[in-house]
Amino acid sequence: MRLHYPTSCQRVEGEGIRPARKGLFLVMLCAGLLLQDGLLRADGLGSKSQLVLAPSAESEQLPGGNDAAASQEQTLSPEEKMRRRFPQPVKVGDLIGLPVLDWDDITIGHVRRVVRTPQGKVQLVVSYGGFFGWGQRLVPVPIEVVAILARQLAALDMSRAEFDKAPTWSASQTVPIPSSEIIQIAITRR
Q1: Model's pTM, two decimal places?
Q2: Phi, psi (5° rounding) for residue 33?
Q3: Quick one: how far is CA 183 from the chain centroid?
Q4: How do strand 99-101 and strand 107-116 relate by DSSP bridges?
Q5: Residues of the chain scoring pLDDT < 70
Q6: Which end of the chain has fewer CB within 10 Å, C or N?
Q7: CA nearest 118: which of 170, 76, 77?
Q8: DSSP per-residue string spanning the chain
Q9: What is the pLDDT of residues 82-135, one digit of tens each?
Q10: What CATH number has the domain spanning 78-187?
Q11: Domain parsing of the chain, residue ranges
């Protein structure tokens, strides 16, 4: 059988359906799926009926109705938030040099080292501040507040103000993690 891809005014071989009817069929199919999912509803007005967009469940909620979910998200510990972000294994050496971005996709700094605290927590040492490398300081960033975003890291739970307030990293309080070691880090998308 020969495959034939018609132009807009040709007839489809073997089926006898004109493209205009195919378009109507696709519109009807989409409307049927939207009706089934509850996104459209059919309203009957006398002898005429019409399709109306149904309000979504989110728009039906009262203002502040999502406060419970937001407060629950805020009460989670950083470790619980990280577990919800699908942590993935990554080699420490692959993190070195990656830029760390804020919510506006502006580079905050770059990862210089990956260290472990005496409590066993993993921290990224990020160069922060300064101007063209002058006046920068190294800031420890908990691994739980960042996530991989393509070939960079996103600071999800640490704002620029928190970077400003963060203490300067001290090598005497941490142990460097070898670049061949594999650790877990969350992933994200925007």
Answers
A1: 0.60
A2: -65, -40
A3: 20
A4: antiparallel
A5: 1-74, 130, 132-133
A6: N
A7: 170
A8: -------TTSPPTTT---HHHHHHHHHHHHHHHHHHHTSEEEEEETTEEEEEEPPPHHHHSPTTTTHHHHHHHHHS-HHHHHHHT--EEEEHHHHTT-EEE-TTS-EEEEEEEEEE-TTS-EEEEEEES-BTTBT-EEEEEEGGGEEEETTEEEESS--HHHHHHSPPP-GGG-EEPPTT-EEEEEE---
A9: 888 888 999 999 999 999 999 999 999 999 999 999 999 999 999 998 676 677
A10: 2.30.30.240
A11: 1-57, 78-187
**pLDDT (0 to 100) of residue 76:** 86
- Identify the pLDDT of residue 183: 95
CA distance 152 to 122: 18
By the 8 A CB rule, do 102 and 108 touch? yes
The encoded tokens of residue 54 equal 């149904």
Show the tokens assigned to 98.
């990656």
- The answer to whether the CB of 175 falls within 8 A of the CB of 115 is yes
